[in-house]
Amino acid sequence: MGKLITTSKPLILHSKFLCFSLFYLFSSLSLALYTFLSQSKCLLRSSPYDPIHSSLFSYNSSYHPHKYAVSTSRSTCSSPVFFSEYWDALKDIQNFRDQSSSSRRVLRYMQGNSDCFGGNFSAQKRFSYFDHPNDNKKIPCGFLKKFPIQDSDKIAMEKCDGLVVVSAIFNDHDKVRQPRGLGSNTLDYVCFFMFIDDITLKGLQYHGIVSSESSRDEYKVGAWRLVKVLKEDLYENPAMNGVIPKYLVHRLFPNSKFSIWVDAKLQLMVDPLLLIHSLVISENVDMAISKHPYYVHTMEEAVATARWKKWWDVNALKLQMETYCDFGLQPWSSSKLPYTSDVPDSALILRKHGLRSNLWSCLMFNELEGFNPRDQLAFAFVRDHMRPRLRLNMFEAEVFEQVVVEYRHNLISHTGGGGSGQVLKRDARTRRAESHLLDVNGSKCHKYLSVMWNDNDEK
């Protein structure tokens, strides 16, 4: 009898351990399944599409294009995106391209020669172009100085007559990352262009990503065609040079019908044809952009820009906000609907090229040249004051986190590559605001702040 009791203990312990293991396994699988299903709620497809199975490009192990991904915390969203079947989306975009191929240009651009690429107009002069009553009025939209690229690149850009995906890396600040989830015919109908400078090119050559042959007229890295820009002929600030392809894409690609701007810190995870079809065409809008995950009011972003030293000249930031308040900038309220926020995440911008989106792009570029390249600060002011009004889809931040993966900028400099260590030369200390600008009661934004704070208190 004693032997029976002695030998039964291991069996009982084994049974308990087995039950616990099965429970743990079941819980883990349930949690994994729940997470997977929750994440998929943002992206709903009517049927599977035909992806490219092979990798677009094989990187050297030293390059590490997918290190330092930024973690996300949202796994569900209140506004899921419904994708059409791949071939239906492709057909609709082809039809749109064919039907609009003979349409005349709806904007006339200012011509001339200038020492500055965009003309560097005064605020009063820039604001005078916000109201565009007819097609005869020429507007400033960059290119008052030659954009320094090779003729072979320019010809290739003009041939892109459908959808173009554009990005830029200056000062070797990011990696060249390949888009994922592309349909089998996407590369035949979508152009991928990455603008780079000499420092970035040297970094790619250092890692063996592109050939170091000096006679090369064309550089390709997977889906991307690299376009070398002689930035010394443009702006001292690399970020401002990146603003040119970001906001003047309709001028660099004059025959394109749609465009997607992708910050180089992002990796596109969904076919661009599906994105344009679901977020722009199906919504019947001129442009689609994500809402900022935290901020709603422009002033919130301005304070964060100064607080986190995203722009070092705080005095200039306050002068910018004072100028916008003086010319009618208002905090967001329900009166601005259907615009649901004043602050976007501008790392991903989807546009249908036409009068409204092209005008917005030109006006935005002029503001960024006039003040600084922090485009979230000028966004609402331009959008709310331009005429005709922009038809805009501001989709949820959760959707943004599903269609792209965000990575951190280059953290170190590479030998021969420049890296992010080479930044714009400036004073190391942040320029604080002058004392008279710290007086809130005497500020031109006093009314703006009062309304914003009262609104936040009520919430």
From TrEMBL:
Segments crossing the lipid bilayer: none
Domain TOD1/MUCI70 glycosyltransferase-like per the UniProt entry, residue ranges: 112-409
InterPro entries (UniProt xref): TOD1_MUCI70 (IPR006852), TOD1_MUCI70_glycTrfase_dom (IPR048354)
PANTHER family: ALKALINE CERAMIDASE TOD1, ALKALINE CERAMIDASE-RELATED
Name this protein carries in UniProt: TOD1/MUCI70 glycosyltransferase-like domain-containing protein
Species annotation: Acacia crassicarpa
